[in-house]
Amino acid sequence: MPVAFVTEITEFGMVAAVPGSGPETLGLRNLRGQVLPVVDLAAVLGIERAAAPGRLLVAEAGGHRACLAVDEVRSIGELPAPAEQTESSLLRGAVLAGTDLIGIIDVPQVLDSVAGASR
Predict the structure, then answer these.
(1) Is 43 strand, coil or helix?
(2) How far apart are CA 46 and CA 70, in angstroms?
(3) For 94-117, how does the pLDDT look when each residue is reduced to its tens digit (9 = 90+)?
(4) E-state strands within 1-51
(5) Contact 102, 78 (CB under 8 A)
(6) How many domains does the chain have?
(7) Which has the closest alpha carbon to 105: 89, 118, 119?
(8) What is the pLDDT of residues 7-33, one digit of tens each?
(9) Is residue 103 a contact partner of residue 91, using CB atoms and an 8 Å limit?
(10) Which of 20, 44, 53, 86 is the most exposed place for a label (fewest CB within 10 A)?
(11) Residue 64 sits in a domain of what CATH number?
(12) Model confidence over 43-64: pLDDT tens digits?
């Protein structure tokens, strides 16, 4: 995920369920007085989750702000521009970092799609 869209990384903490919400919405989280939706990034991307999410990435783009539930955060740093194309509209592309192929999340597109699903 491009670090420019991440405002903070925090523990998963207490999340209040929202009855009737879609499978990608895990609930709401009060983060220092601001109530934010908690979105399961794996569900948005169509990836099966092997374990419960452990961290939240608070992301902001295009007037939308949300907590994105992820398994873990391994490192923080800049990635090169995407060199590989992807078929998903939720990815900007992919880069090869060592032997790992890393998909670059299109944060504005992800937040727009989640905001559109909640309307």
Answers:
(1) helix
(2) 13
(3) 998 888 888 899 999 999 988 866
(4) 6-11, 25-31, 34-40
(5) no
(6) 1
(7) 89
(8) 999 999 999 999 998 889 999 999 989
(9) yes
(10) 20
(11) 2.40.50.180
(12) 999 999 888 999 999 999 988 9
